[in-house]
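Journal club side-thread
Mid-discussion, someone asked how the predicted structure for our own chain would compare to the paper's figures. Pasting it here so we can look after the session.
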Amino acid sequence: MHALFVKSLSVAIFFLTGGDPASPPNKQGELQVQLSGWTAAEGSVLLAVYDRSEDFLSENRYRELAVPLTSREPLTVRVGGLPFGRYAISAFHDANDNAELDTNFLGIPKESYGFSNNARGRFGPPSFEQAAFEFDTAAKQISIDLR
């Protein structure tokens, strides 16, 4: 009777933990975003992580970070504790630290900007699908060149 109980408990635990005893219970990791392309070591780089296409480029960001610039060298922003999933990232060099992407009278950005996959839109920003990538490993690195 005791052996049957232990076996039943083991089977229940196996299925409750996702069936793979070697897999971590929380599938998340660290995304490293290497950024480059600004021309002055002033202001900050603002980075926004989106997890839903309907929120892309809106105020409904999954996560956002601001990194003060101290040089013109590329930098790496670490986004830790990120659950596995599909994401898109936008970033821009906020040269005057006003927390906005400054544009000219035609709406064309005056500050450098970029997206994951180095996606570019034709007449405007790229879509979520163009910038989206799968995050499914404990550590992943992507690069974004601000233009």
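Post-session note: Residues 4-17 have pLDDT under 50 and may be disordered.
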